[in-house]
Write a structure and sequence with these properties.
With 135 residues, this protein is of the alpha+beta class. 37% of the residues lie in helices and 27% in strands. The mean pLDDT is 89. Keywords: Ribonucleoprotein, Ribosomal protein.
Length: 135
Amino acid sequence: MADAVTVRTRNLIKNPLLKRRQFVVDVVHPGKAPVSKEDLTKQICSMFSGVDAKCVVLFHFKVAFGGGRSTGFGLIYDNLDALKKYEPRWRQIRYGFADARSRSRKAYKELKKKIRTTWGTGRRARLRKERRAAE
């Protein structure tokens, strides 16, 4: 990462219930492409003492119009157990802490069909029509 990149954090909140610190990350990178999350993680680990790189989660980065500035959110969990407990599953998969479930094509189609069945009032109306047709 070049020296021209500046990383600042703001709105730092300690969240003891979720065992993490949460903050907004401002990245200034004039004339350069947006900085990778791996580089930002290293930079944030150096800013906060005693932080493991695996416990840092960065997401929702948006580049300002015209470039040169990016803003996103960051979380620093106290330990990996807290991260695995409170972080959404899709983000754990993205960071390599959980395995993605792979369903077969048939299982996916059956699940889709099951979701589309009618419930409630529509189901009652369908059953009523079937009974009348049977009579």
